[in-house]
Structures are given as C-alpha cells and as structure tokens.
Specification:
Blueprint lengths: L11 H33 L10 H28 L5 H24 L11 H28 L6
Length: about 160
C-alpha cells in the first residue's frame, strides 16, 4: 500500500516536474519499445487465432497523439502555468484530449483481452501485454494527476 512518501507532490511547480519525469519521459521511452514489439508480435503470430490484430496501429496512433499532447503541455501549457497565467481554455482542451486517451486505453484493453496473453504466448507477446498494462496504468494515473490536482489550480 503506497505511503505518504509515494504520494505525488501538490505544489504546481513540483507537480509539473513530477509529470515530466515520471510520466512524459516514461511514456516516450515505453512507447518507443512497445510499437516495434507490437509489430513483431502481430507479424510472428499472424496465424494465431488470439493474436492482437491492430495493436501495432493503435499503439502507433497513441504514440503520435500522446507525443503531440505532451509537447504542447511542455512548450505552452506548463510554462504558462509556471508564469502564473490563467489556463482555463487550454486545460479544457487538454481534458478533452485526456478523454480521447482514455478511449484509446479501453481499445487497448479490449485488443489484449484485458492484458491477458493466451497460455501459449511467447515471451515477446507476454512482454507486450505486460508493457501495455503498465502503460495503461501509468497513463490513467498521469491523466488523473493533471485533471484532479494540476488543472484545478489554474482554472478560473
């Protein structure tokens, strides 16, 4: 059970630093690994009836959209927040994109049978589903932190 030491920070500057280090950097690194792994699994197991058809395309789409989203946060939203600016319109847009990310996570869970590989899955397939499950949990926590802690501090 996480303790108080595991709780994310509450001061906006600290929250932003935490988001950048714990989520943005990790999402980038993990998606860079998951996309080729998904292509490999889909290709190698093309004849398997439980193969995750379309997972590589979904992860590639998620990667592109998430990268665009994070870049806008890093280059525009977070600097505006740190400068003390109001951000209601921007945070509303980010919340809308968060809703889209949640829908993609639902699709990812559906494609992977809730991240449960078949019994005869190889190590790569298992690693793919494990990585997707971690990505889903991290992205959900990331979205919650922004929506529930960071954004309210800057919305009128």
């Amino acid at each position: 059970m996480p303790g108080a030491a595991d709780a994310p920070p509450r001061e906006p500057k600290d929250v932003i630093e935490h988001i950048l280090e714990r989520y943005h950097a990790v999402h980038r690194r993990e998606l860079a690994e998951l996309c080729p792994l998904a292509r490999k699994v889909e290709g190698v197991h093309a004849a398997h009836p439980q193969r995750p058809v379309g997972i590589a395309a979904l992860l590639t789409q998620m990667r592109a959209e998430l990268e665009h989203h994070m870049m806008r946060e890093e280059q525009m939203l977070f600097p505006t927040m740190l400068a003390g600016g109001g951000c209601t319109f921007a945070t509303r847009r980010m919340r809308h994109e968060h809703d889209e990310h949640v829908e993609q996570l639902k699709a990812l869970a559906q494609l992977t049978n809730d991240f449960t590989p078949p019994e005869d899955a190889c190590r790569s397939w298992r690693a793919l589903y494990e990585g997707c499950a971690k990505l889903a949990a991290d992205l959900a926590a990331h979205i919650e932190l922004e929506n529930e802690v960071l954004f309210p501090a800057f919305e009128a």
